[in-house]
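Example (one chain per record):
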Amino acid sequence: MLTEPVSLEDHALGRLDSAVTLVQYGDYACADTRQWWVGIQALQIQHAGRLLLVFRHFPRASIHPNARLAAAAAEAAATQGEFWTMHNHLLNHQAALGPEELRMHARDLGLDTGRFERDRASADVAARIERDVTSGTRSGVKATPALFVNSIPHDGPRTLESLRAALLAAGLG
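Predicted structure:
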């Protein structure tokens, strides 16, 4: 079960009163996280207004050395109201997640790069990422992406059709 309920502090797309909530724990350097996100976005468009999408950080630095840096970049962008812009950009540029590349991404997205760098290195950003990691660990997340449909782990086959069926069963229909 998802131990940390979805709240206003989460990065969410959709309405908080949606019929179904899908939480994804992900790692910006994980190819599977990117692949699933593309499919999840399609589901959200198809079920606009009825599906709430939440993304939580679960950087696996032991496998992806730049994953935590990328998560910090997304959080730094969030302080400027651009979490989702950076989120999608990072997933689309997984081969470019080093410190200099992240600075270039911020510049390319029109962010205040000085503020971005300060925020990226801040204790608040580190704490935000750690909160997601801790909630994931407590919820049994071991790998990315990890998906939860209305707080229940989606352990079905790793296909979009399986996820769609779980969403429909949860009340998306």
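Caption: The mean pLDDT is 96.
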